Amino acid sequence: MTRLGQGLALRPCTTPLLVTGTAVLRLADLPPPGRLPPSGAAVTVSMHGVANLLAALVALDGHAARMLLLAGDMPAAEVLRLAEAAGCDVLLSDRADLPGAIRPEAGHGAGPPGVTRATEWILASSGTTGLPKLIRHDLSGLSRSVRPLATGAPRPVWALGYEPTRFAGLQVLLQAVLGGGTLVAAEAGTGLAARLGLFTRAGCTHFSATPTLWRQILMHPAADGLKLRQITLGGEIADQPVLSALATRFPAARITHIYASTEAGVGFSVTDGREGFPAGLLEGGRLRIDEGRLWIRPAGPPPGSLGPMPLPMNEDGFIDTRDRVERRGDRVHFLGREGGGINVGGAKVQPEMVERAILMLPEVALVRVTGKRNPLSGAVIIAEVVPREPPEDQAGFRRLVIQHCRATLPPEAVPALIRLAPELAVNASGKLMRG
Amino acid sequence: MQAIILRVFAEIWREQYGTAPPVIELQAPLLDCGLDSLGFAVLVTRLELELGYDPFTLSDEVFYPRTMAEFVSFYEQNRPAD
Questions:
Q1: Which residues contact A67 (CB under 8 A, 6 or more apart)?
Q2: Under a CB-based contact definition with an 8 Å cutoff, are residues A2 and A139 in contact?
């Protein structure tokens, strides 16, 4: 068992480990992690600063029995609730709204000497509905896809495009620091133009982000200075427009899209510039299509989940991704989420929720909400609405529905377009026919 | 074309913010005008209803406009022949 700190000790000591908007840090410059809890403690970590997060990971891996990693902008009540669910009674944080936490500036106590132990890394799944699941990993599993720096190869400089405590963000963080490179991370709350400026000044060569963020980057002139050799898309399904546009805009870069989940780890990575994945990967024993959905068998020992919700795993050890797929010839394509969620700018929208909101209007008889593909946001919401009485002012009626949605729904769930329809098709059981 | 696009832009702006839309600098970064990428996705959807075409799906070339001038000229260049 190699600890994170031991892995980092192999790095050349002059290579910057982390570049932020305000500092360039080598390993020796990492801030003190605070007064360490006793060896074997179960610890929650929620940090605003990436340097503080990295320092905590180095100090705790091999020292704590368990660390629960939560985003620095997660609401405080949610942090406390998940900490309790994970049985973590010590909290390390640089946040002002978590008063009981051990703070980084509390001084560098080495802590009582303890044996080096295996540390559980607990990640919260993004949980599109209801409570996030808490998934148990360890460093060797999380760093399985880390590629070491080849002799003589230029040092990669990684731009961090994700929240670093999410699965995709940790992958980038570990690849950067254990792969002999440098991680470049903007302070929380930095706008896109300033982040792109930092990534350009820091000489980023590698950049991993969601397709949603890449679409915004493609629309931003501040990205013109980036000299990228590696572009990675993860966290959401990559579609052909964003892959093609990246290839045109950054012709020198290799473009990889990765399919991974907190529960199953990395499923595949594809570099041929086409959406979906080669059907040949289904022969490798780790990917399978069943009931029209993609299932993944984790590469290592199966991850565990804490709490009452078991992983959706079948008896062969395959985990249900709930992503619907279809094989067409030599390619497998993604069709959307089981349950019909629509991805609008990276946020999942349930059409039924939008329908319920619109049906609250007494002027509306029937409504059907669908997604429409859009190159700038992945998809937009379209609502077909049957009014109770044909409105005299159609534009005014549309405005009424939109204003009602604005007042009652999150921004991504507000329909981009209201189509007025005289009627909507229903099936034999009286349910709306969906696409 | 530019007038239609700016009119629909103003409509969406008023819907989202309830204020008068800003004066658009044609050469300034598109996302700096205050409307986010979701707002522009809405603009593309509304313009399809207004103009009868969506250049982003018609065009073989994948294009992400960076300024309002690029956005307008993309609509002009990909206008279907009558």
A1: A42, A43, A44, A45, A56, A57, A60, A61, A88, A119, A120, A121, A122
A2: yes
Residue A82 tokens, joined: 């998940």
The secondary structure of residue A82, as a DSSP letter, is H
Task: Return the DSSP state at A407.
Answer: H
Q: What is the pLDDT of residue A313?
A: 84
**A339/A350 Cα distance (integer angstroms):** 8
Number of Cβ pairs closer than 8 Å across A and B? Answer: 84
Query: Residue B65 carries which side chain, given as an amino acid letter?
Result: P
Q: Quick check: B54 and B44 in contact, CB under 8 A?
A: yes
End-to-end CA distance of chain A: 51
pLDDT digits (tens, 9 = 90+) for B19-55: 999 998 999 888 888 888 899 999 999 999 899 999 9
Q: Looking at residue B67, what DSSP letter applies?
A: B
Q: Pick the closest to residue A82 from A41, A123, A110 (CA basis).
A: A123
In chain A, residues under CATH classification 3.40.50.12780 are 4-328
Q: How many domains does chain B have?
A: 1
| Interface residue A118 vs chain B (CB under 8 A) | no
**Beta-carbon separation of A220 and B37 below 8 A:** no
Tell me if A298 sits within 8 A of A288, measured CB to CB: no
Contact (CB<8Å) B45/A382: yes
ipTM score for this prediction: 0.90
Reported in sequence order, the residue ranges of A63-109 that DSSP labels E, i.e. its strands, are 66-70, 90-93
Whether A55 contacts A47, CB under 8 Å: no
CA angle A292, A269, A136 (to 5 degrees): 80
**Whole-number pLDDT of residue B27:** 92
Between CA A148 and CA A13 the distance in angstroms is: 16
Q: Does B17 contact A at CB distance below 8 Å?
A: no
CB distance A124 to A75 below 8 Å:
no
- What's the CATH number where B9 sits? 1.10.1200
- CATH code given to domain A4-328: 3.40.50.12780
What local confidence, expressed as pLDDT, does residue B16 receive?
A: 86
Residues lower than pLDDT 50 in chain A: 111-112
